[in-house]
């Protein structure tokens, strides 16, 4: 793991060496706060919890995380630095894990900076902080799932715009798979696929965390989901390196 951690430290520092970190974090915090207090009806609900915040986070990540991942490998390929990276004494898998951990840690920082919302609900009432902590954990896992998808797609192309669009589409597919519109349509036409759609839906798995329910099955889902896309990312890099 040491080579992967070395890559992770390098990549994490690179985020804060450019305006990328500031822009991402500011946009995330502004949107999260404004949506929570306006569309989420934070004050009109009369409940001291962060359900409005958690309901919007997966959809914010749907667009913001691909913006973060579109440069992970596409930029390396465009600049030609990917060849230099892969000639270092590390494997493709270690490079993939290192970049993923750096981006995941960055998302964790962005989530941590929403702590004023947590302080607000504790000031206004007596929320179940265990449920709130569970919701934050779920948000972090959702971010990891989207990062894994986006990173794998970024490795396919040199064009960051294409990487962004494809990553948004891929993330949306897994986010919306368990929505009532999709499942009702499948139940009426392809009942077998309705259960499959619910099973692969990221939002369905995330919902349990927002209720304070942390199950081993949901953890296994996110771990296997992230692992699969990271493995695919490494395979794509190996294929590109062979070319």
From TrEMBL:
Localization (cell): Cell membrane
Tagged with keyword Membrane: yes
Domain (ABC-2 type transporter transmembrane) ranges: 53-183
TM region positions: 12-33, 53-74, 95-119, 131-149, 161-182, 219-237
Membrane topology recorded in Swiss-Prot or TrEMBL: Multi-pass membrane protein
Keywords: Cell membrane, Membrane, Transmembrane, Transmembrane helix
PANTHER family per record: MEMBRANE COMPONENT OF ABC TRANSPORTER YHHJ-RELATED, MULTIDRUG ABC TRANSPORTER PERMEASE YBHS-RELATED
Protein name (record): ABC transporter permease subunit
Organism: Roseococcus pinisoli
Taxonomic classification: Bacteria, Pseudomonadati, Pseudomonadota, Alphaproteobacteria, Acetobacterales
